[in-house]
Amino acid sequence: MFDNLAPTELVVAIADSQRQESMVMAQRMAAVAELLAQRTAEIHDEDPDPGYMIVTGFQRTTAEVAAAMNLSASAACFVVSHAHTLAERLPKVAAVLAMGDTDWRTVKLIITRTEFVSDSVIGRLDKQLANRIAKWRCWSRKRIINAVDATVRTMDPDAILERLRREDKRHVGVTPQSDGTAKVEGVLAAEAGMAFDKRLAELADGVCRADPRTRDQRRADAMEAMAERRALVCLCGADDCPNRSDEPAPARRIMVNVIAGAETVLGGGDAPGYIEGYGVIDAEQVRSLAEKAHLRTLEEPAVSDAEALRYQPTAAVERWVRMRDLTCRFPGCDRAAVICDVDHTIPFNRADPRNGGPTVPWNLKCLCREHHRDKTFVDGWRDEQLRDGTVIWTSPTGEVYRTAPGGVDLFPDMATSTACQEPKPSRRNRSRDRAARIARIRQRNRIQRPINEAHRRLQQARRREIGYRKHRNHMRKMLFLLKGRSSTSPFCAWINDPFEPEELPPDWQPPPQPPPLRDDPPF
User: Fold this and answer.
1) Pick from 105, 87, 112: which is nearest to 27 by CA?
2) Domain ranges, residue 490
């Protein structure tokens, strides 16, 4: 079907199919919602007061959807529930999906994250999200969740009460299994969960590379080590391994970074905050954490000329870039910035730093190791960073994607800094740039063509000369084998010459052509 299409056409076909898929999904959800409405109306017509009717309209619809879509009963129940939510609570979001301006993944996240929003607020929330989601192209799942959660927590205080109810149910349980293992599960406060996760990671990464366990297995074993207040013992088996000891692990404070506006911290606002690596938290959680935390003002640091010419950014610059970006800046990636590399958009010139990209916030961004390698080693990926932190990616097929800093979405005040000011309008003329690029390539080809032609002629002459020498040496060898003495023939005196080397020196040049004779053509 697509055998004759170029990569650029294939990418366009993929994008078009996703848009059509969104439109088809909207049609399917609308049809399911209409079926639910009709089946519910039938139930009401049969009995205006159904009471505890055994088979409700929802159950009738679920059965028909399960049969039509070849789904289990539980999966069909989710489909009907989502369709009902779009029709009754989020009609404007459904309209955006029907136009193909967003995808089903985004809409499904909105449905699940707005489940507890009250009916008095859902209308305004639906309108606000519908105006924004069309711009959420290239956003990762985590970033969409953060944006929706921040909006919900700002518009509906009841969401905070729901968080408190869930936090009241926090627990940790250990259940013995029949196979000699135990299952650990629980619910913790956000900050406690992040501290626990970081401590497990710290212990699991404290062994050498030769340890045979996977990282998941090391994290599981680290729980036992943490309970016994010791380091995780390395199982590499080497006698000189420094991590074989099970001595008590030194006590360390686990640092969890929280970002919040000054008004929220001081009690004058209710804007949500953000826990690095976790996501959005409400204002009450921010103030609770601030009571026992070390506070630091997050602002764009000043960079001296000497610091801008060093490859490694200062601690303040690196902290600002990670807090500004929050995640990897490649389209669709949601790996946390804390585990990402800090990449120079304009490459840093180690030999001459003044002729390369400076180490300043507007030239730095977070990239996970995978996408950092893609940018560095995969031909075709190009990136351009604007003064406001926006990164414009161009794929190998020419598709253009824009990613904005995640921190600016949650904390608009970050956009007022020097590094995040609105960029000046682009004066770039793509047609003129393309014509200039073509002219440069043609000029380079004109200069290089005679050089390449002379190189080809030289290589051909070298191959011919080596072939001639091998032939003459072969004839000399045969003469010695057959006659055992020099030839007396006057027609090939060269056969009596010594054997010639069959490798040419690097500076060998073919002999000049003899001048033409008087009787050579043309006459």
Assistant:
1) 87
2) 449-496
